[in-house]
Amino acid sequence: MQSYSSDELTIKEQNKILIGAIGPRPIALISSQSDEEVVNVAPFSYFNIISYRPAIVSVSVQRINGQMKDTARNIISNQEAVVHIVDEDNVALANQTSRHLPAEDSELNYANFTTVKSSVVKPPGLEEAKVRFETSLYNHTEIYNGDEVTADVLMLRIETFHLAKEIYDKDTGYIDVRKLAAVGRLAGQDYAKIGEFFSIERP
Fold first, then answer.
1. Where are the beta strands (DSSP E) in the chain?
2. Domain Flavin reductase like spans what residues (predicted)?
3. Residue 33: predicted pLDDT
4. pLDDT tens per residue, range 104-122
5. How many Å apart are CA 156 and CA 183, to the nearest integer?
């Protein structure tokens, strides 16, 4: 076993270790809206469930040179967003939204998503996602590295669940994970599909 203190590794080396060791990571494709009503769409793999009572998911949005990304700024300003699950059918489109654009330019100009009006929030949903959550901002925490803010952690409370009929069985309450076919993020340019399943009985 090789051991390193955080002081012995560069930030880039630490990031490579984290994204290589912690995976596959679920991917949230988030639509938000600016004060000028520009729709921003961007994918994030620092994403997961925080709570189910109430239903809250979290996403960590890394800053660039200390500057807040459009998604974080929009959500903090307007207190709402739509979170979509990236799957095998929409991952190529989702990848197109990862480009760096000025705040006044929408990723929808480059990724051919179909927008749908949301029920309770202003940002639109994306029809190509089998799962989407309309959310409100529950909490915002800044992450510091010394005196510098390096990330914005957003906790988003789910207000409305939208689930494709082919993946959700209301009688059992379960999502068919094979039909959803969510993909996970690995390191570099790599993604992972749902593979072989196995079960272990809890003690």
1. 25-26, 28-33, 39-44, 47-52, 55-62, 80-85, 115-116, 125-126, 131-145, 148-163, 168-169, 174-175, 184-185, 191-192
2. 22-176
3. 97
4. 999 999 999 999 999 999 9
5. 21
What ranges do the domains of the chain cover?
10-192
Ranges of the chain with pLDDT below 50 = none
Q: Which residues contact 11 (CB under 8 A, 6 or more apart)?
A: none
33 near 4, Cβ under 8 Å?
no
Cβ 85 vs Cβ 184: under 8 Å = no
pLDDT of residue 4: 95
In this prediction, residue 61 carries a pLDDT of 98
Sole residue written with tokens 């068919």:
176
Superfamily of domain covering 10-192: Electron Transport, Fmn-binding Protein; Chain A (2.30.110.10)
